[in-house]
Amino acid sequence: MKVLFAGGGTGGHTIPGIALAQRVQDDGSQVLFMASSREVDVHLMERYKLNAICLAVQSPSLNPAVWPRLLIDGAKVYRQVAQAIDDFAPDAVVGLGGYVSFLPVLAARMRRLPILLLEQNVIPGKVTRRLAPLASEVCCQWQETIRYFGVNVRARVTGNPVRAEILSGSREEAMRQFGLDPAKKTLLVVGGSQAAHALNVMMIQSAEDLARELPAVQVIHLAGQADRDMAAAAYQRAGVEAFVAPFLDEMNLAYRAADFVLGRAGGTTIAELAACGIPSLLVPLPHAADDHQRHNARSLAESGAAVVLEQAEFTPRILAGLIRKFFEDDGLARRMHQASLDRGRPGAADEIVAKLKTFVKPSATSVSARVVNTSGAAPEPEPVAKEQA
């Protein structure tokens, strides 16, 4: 089987695709990724050594002055995408959401290829809503999402694919990696691939309250490059034991160390927290498209797995008080842990791969080393040995 993955622009779109691609490759199948040329996608393609084309596609704009240039550039990208699809000859196409997925899915439809879409959020994105009628199936993380699609769209709840590595590692290994105290409780602060600055400021302003009210709590804070030094200095002044980094590839170890998470409410973050059974305090991104993060957060909170704090309601005392309540109430911590596990779907990738296999006949694939192609040229076809019918 050969599967084309299309989408990206943010980790929330790209990472579920990587999780699913890993599972596809585990079966000996062949993968081609069409991602954006943004730094987050290029880094992920290189890190996971995926056969990939990073497309120089521009996001839509409401400014009519740039529409002619967007149309010209879009036509160029479409020709590039169509040629790459013809060369790769996929058996199925998986759309990951975001504007990067639009042209590849459209080209796949023109070639009558089976199309499967992933939707990570309670409220589906605009691109996914527009592409859903073209798809053989839409796989959703949330039951509430189904009602946003028309009666002619085949949609079902599978959960959001989570990378196998997320469930690996141990707390002991994590504490050694981060130089933290195994006897202390650990708060993990993570903002995702966008809009982490407001969370960083929240924690910086709350550091002294946290040190005073919870001296036995330590922090892992992924603050981004711009805020890393500022956050580290704030913890040092307050006397809070902390590991501060711009970002972390080894998120599995951060999750192994964490007793509680403060973060945004992106669909991929929530899927990983639930798969690991980690309780959370979620601060939805106020200006997210369709306000989808607030809907994600509230759905998780209704199950008892999370608490929601609106960014506009934040004060250092409120934040420190909510964190203190969790760490001081063992019964609450246990209930939230179990509720989080109950919402997890760690087998989502297996379920979706099983569905992909119903679209095509399985084939034995010989896959050589995969490299990132950022030049825009279609990758050289890889040798494929197909079984005799």
Task: Give an overview in words.
The protein has 389 residues and is an alpha/beta fold. It folds into two domains: 2-162 and 346-373, Rossmann fold, CATH 3.40.50; 168-343, Rossmann fold. 43% of the residues lie in helices and 15% in strands. The chain contains 14 helices and 14 strands. The chain has helices at residues 11-26, 39-47, 67-88, 102-110, 126-131, 171-178, 197-213, 224-238, 251-257, 267-276, 292-302, 316-328, 330-343, 348-359; strands spanning 2-6, 30-36, 52-55, 92-95, 115-119, 137-140, 155-157, 185-190, 217-222, 242-245, 260-263, 280-282, 306-308, 372-373. The strands form two sheets. Strands 7-6-5-4-1-2-3-14 form an eight-stranded parallel β-sheet, with helices on both faces. Strands 10-9-8-11-12-13 form a six-stranded parallel β-sheet, sandwiched between helices. Strand 11, helix 10 and strand 12 (280-282) form a beta-alpha-beta unit. Helix 1 (11-26) crosses helix 14, helix 7 runs parallel beside helix 8 (224-238) and helix 7 (197-213) crosses helix 12 (316-328). The longest helix has 22 residues, at 67-88. 49% of the residues are buried. Residues 364-372 and 374-389 have low confidence and may be disordered.
